[in-house]
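Question thread 4412

I'm putting together a teaching handout and wanted feedback from people who do this every day. The idea is simple: show students a protein as raw sequence, then show them the structure tokens that encode its fold, then repeat with a second protein so they can compare. Below is the first pair exactly as I plan to print it.
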Amino acid sequence: MMSIIFRSLILLGIAIPFLAVLCDSFSPENPTDRRILVLVDDFAIKSSHSLYFKSLQSRGFEVEFKLADDPKIALQRYGQYLYDALIIFSPSVERFGGSINAAAIMEFVDAGHDLILAADESASDLIREVAIECGVDFDEEPGAVVIDHTSYAVSAMDGDHTIIAADDFIKSDVILGSKTIEAPVLFQGISHSVNPASNLVLKVLSASPSAYSANPKSKLLNPPAIYGSASSLVSVVQARNNARIVISGSLKMFSNQFFRYGVQKAGTPTKHEKSGNEQFLTEISKWVFHERGHLKAVNVRHHKVGKVDEPFMYRINDDLEYSVEIFEWSGANWEPYVADDVQVQFYMMSPYVLKTLSTDQKGVYYTSFKVPDVYGVFQFKVEYQRLGYTSLSLSKQIPVRPFRHNEYERFITAAFPYYGASFSMMTGFLLFTIFYLYNK
């Protein structure tokens, strides 16, 4: 009996810390990812890319390193995910260890978790498969890298034309921060293309019009598959479930070496003491880990004008007020979100009312309108999608009824001509009867 109790206590002692880890997971009230798994080819990356990892740890992230082919690694246990985000810095891995594969990584993203994927010219078929699942297609030519003979970095490695000084950034403060990135970003790796028809994938850092993708060790016999501004160097994906992905064609751009390099773009006199890599990658990591651009909506309210309580149904032609509070996560707390493009629909099969919401600059959005003269089951719908921000999808169902028989006006103003016509006809009939009966 004592041995059973002792064994139970040991199991409980093991289970309690494990359950505590599972309970400290991604929360809508605290959306910043805190537990990050980093998969590497070699633990040397831990020191060669230490500046990037230290920037994450300084912001409170728990970073755990594992070899990509470690047979014990797993993303989930007993149906619960052990990590909030995944960083893959193992471009040449042919097969992940443990229970991880391309399908498991996409399930991880489908569950609302975030991903950073860095590749290079040695990218394996497995890494390319994960990228394709995310909507990004790396150049398939063996040994191909991005080459640019006009926008290379003259101050890095004696002007190697495969080291690009890229400064074609996406124009989005929510993704790259409000502070301008002055210095070009050093990039050495492979390019990729994105599906132009997709509104989920965005090019964050593009190559210059003179760039092309080819193997620098062989002659260029055929036109390159990817060239010019169509070559994306770094792209981001925001899935429909608001999971975020960053895909880079260069692992070296995350390295301490590229962080510390001075850079001068070919053809320009300005020499920067430090590349823009650290600022660029820090800002984009804030976005992918939901420290910026994450919205939530609370306190959705609607009621009749002059009332406070929410009714269980409206009557046609009622005047109503609608309001919602929207906040943005700053990485530490929720702050009021201010915009002028939030709209609400009063919807039944199609929108009968579409109103742009006013704001008090403190996170409260509101409007008022008249219920349409149509009865049925309506919805208040807010479908908000803006570049770089998590999407909001709010709906609240409410029935609308017609007037009851005793709610109509006794005399309708618009019907006065018909009332007059009826009484004039009765008067005429009475006069005709009198005249007919008493006239000789």
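The second pair follows. I'd like the answer to focus on this one:
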Amino acid sequence: MSQKTIYLIIGLIVTAVLGVILLQLDMIRTGMEVNEQRYDEAVQDALKNAARELEQQEASEINLQTNGFNSSESNINLGPGKFTRDIQRSKLLGNNGILIPEPYSYRLRLENQYNNKDLVERVDRSSLEKKLQNEIENANLEGALEYGVYDNRKKEFIIRNGRRLSEIGADTSRHLDLLHSNFRVSLFAGEVDTPGYLMAYSPQKKTVIFNSIWYNLVASLLFVGIILGCFIYTIYVILFQKKLSEMKTDFINNMTHEFKTPIATISLATDSIVSPRVSGDPEKVKRFANIIKQENKRMNDQVEKVLQMAKLDKSKLNLNLTAVDLNDVVTDAAVYISLQVEPRGGSVETKLQAEPAIVEGDMTHLSSLVNNLLDNANKYSPDAPKIIVSTRNVSKGVEVTVTDHGLGMTREARKNIFDRFYRVHTGDRHDVKGFGLGLSYVKTITEAHNGTINVKSELGKGSSFIVTFPYRQD
């Protein structure tokens, strides 16, 4: 898959995910607006019903007093003087001077009396409290609801949450939450001048509305999170597979090159041996036979490395645990690598400070591990390698450090050097050979021995590989 195709897929998936997120956010916003509107309507209806209850309660009192007055006063002779005072609210029914009060006339007087009362006397606080509570419960309104009665004539609050306010407590500056609220209805609205308002304020309104849609929000976030997680994982797998494919391609190219050279050498040596000019000379035959043997051993070593990693892949690694002296292992490995370093004008120095240096491990694998580190230090060093190998005792084990003054590595390279088939980019240098399996093998063997491996490196200044092995295995 090409880089362009990968970027196109990433772009399409990102666009789709962003579209889903935006749609979900819009749906959540719409849901909150609808729930807020329903909440506002429910609170407003509760206030209207409570105000209507007060008006009906007062009207019932007036009706009761009017009916009582009609039954007791309908046959009384009020006399001329009374007629003079009540001429505006009475009706003459006969010529004998007897006046009968008109029911509507008395009702008007009662209504005027109620209208002239202070608002605080007209509002039954207990009835208002009970009615509001019932309305709130019936409307399923969650959260506390603050309410108050505002006297429009006195320009102050007279009741707050069923409690009559004192002169100081009635100050509107103490009730700005109610004063600025949109929840309000007129009390006794049928009169010419509205005597007051019933107001309410919900301090938990936003919380209540959010709680009504939180499960939708959580579900949306969960599903979007799953989509994002799958998307990120998919992209990771694509990029990883692409990287792995590139490393395997490099591995095949390197392996082909590594095998091509000895095969060509063996072919030339074989042709030389069968040549009549060489076949009759035992010394030349022996010389070319040794070349064939060395190149064959070189190919066998390369194949062995690949087979070792294949065994590790299939978890077929069986450690033959014995007592291993790491000082001896380091000394033997240093002697071997010196044969390659010294012809290049380099040097290998050992600092064996560990005492004791004996650990429980597999002799073969530990030797291969140290040889791989030294071979790596040699390959990534300039023309005159300077390699230092040291051992020292640490808590519960022995530490082996291989330091070179070679090319060094970037931070990105340090993250990937233990990946299989990965090889550090060497710029214009093309003489660094290998399959990219050495450090992966080193890490695998270290972990198989319950050890740890760390790397310190700076580009252009060299690298240090620190491997620690415990004295005993579990």
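Top answer:
Good format. For the second protein you could add a caption like this: Residues 74-100, 427-432 have pLDDT under 50 and may be disordered. Residues 3-73+117-203 form one domain.
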